Amino acid sequence: MFNQQDSVPPVKGNLSFENTEIAFKHASNADLNRAYWLFKAINNNFLVKVGPGITNFAMGIGLPIKGIIKATIFKQFCGGETIAECDATIKNLYKGGVGTILDYSVEGEEDEKVFDDTRDEIIRTIERATGDPAIPITVFKVTGVGRFGLLEKLDAGAKLTEAEELEWQKVQARVQAICNKAYQAGIPVMIDAEETWIQLTIDRLAMSMMRRYNRDRAIIFNTYQIYRHDKLASLKVDFDIARTEGFYLGVKLVRGAYMEKERKRAAEMGYPSPIQPDKASADRDYNDSLRFCVEHVDRIALVAGTHNEDSCRLLADLLNQLRIPHNHPHVYFSQLLGMSDNLSFNLANAGYNVVKYVPYGPVKAVMPYLFRRANENTAIAGQMSRELSLIIKEKKRRKI
What we know:
Layout: H1 20-23, H2 29-42, H3 45-60, H4 66-71, H5 73-77, H6 87-95, E1 99-104, H7 112-129, E2 138-140, H8 148-155, H9 162-185, E3 189-191, H10 196-213, E4 220-225, H11 231-245, E5 249-254, H12 259-269, H13 279-295, E6 300-305, H14 309-321, E7 331-336, H15 341-349, E8 354-360, H16 363-379, H17 383-398
Parallel strand pairs: 1-8, 2-3, 3-4, 4-5, 5-6, 6-7, 7-8
Helix pairs in contact: 2-17, 3-16, 7-9, 8-10, 11-13, 13-14
């Protein structure tokens, strides 16, 4: 458990997210130039819309574009095709004080053998993290080890067939194997959030794993998508359960990743949208969630997954105000590889715990993840212009 005497006290001074020298210290001139042209291309909505179709067609007929993809968008947002290929990225991030979350980003599969293989790969990420302070946290998706349609049926409360009952037992066994490995290794593992119509089943799984493995410390984390209007309330309910039953609550806070899909499905099926009415409401609940977690930092372990500068500054300020050490083991900031380096590296430079999601996997299998990143980026007003302005500022500073 956390020992105050072993901690680093809060650092005085202003935290700046404008310091591009710190933000891009890990990036070579070639890296900066690649990022500049890539973000300019992503900023072009037409390219983002037609890119997936063109790329999938070209790869489908065997055109040799894998090398181009791997040298551009893949290199910006992914660590490699294998864990070993991620080593250079892991070391480069750690030089700047930023840890790695190895994220095996193969998705959309339906085959039982693939689910078993994915379970084994997630376990390998835990093994790779063991004993390496550069990889302090791991992660997986339940849909990586179980069929989406099965989870959907469970969420709806439908009766499973005998075959589906057996299938569900296998899914639970895979999740159990991953969580047990994390517990034995002492490496925290986060369970990512997914669509609302399968999330209740995921939440129940996550809480059952926390009950089993979070008695002495936070090993299992569940993810709360705060763009849902009900998640601040469910965070508080889960904390009450954890406190009453005597286990630590592992919390990963994100705004969310499925907003447009959620609204569209709600409209088509005629039920109330689970999404906040506006961005201000999501921002308010996200920041209130941060406050709640920090106020209970003795029993809640928090990973704040956000690219929002105001939320990052709020969390940093909260730690200072409550005289909680920047490197408290229950508080991490998290961003995606290839984005918001001004947040990640300036926070790390100020002594805060910071980790980057480092996706990896075969190029073709990771393409859905990459296209989703590009689409999300264009959907966030000002995100690309912010990234570009910081890169341009650093290019000018370096005179390149």
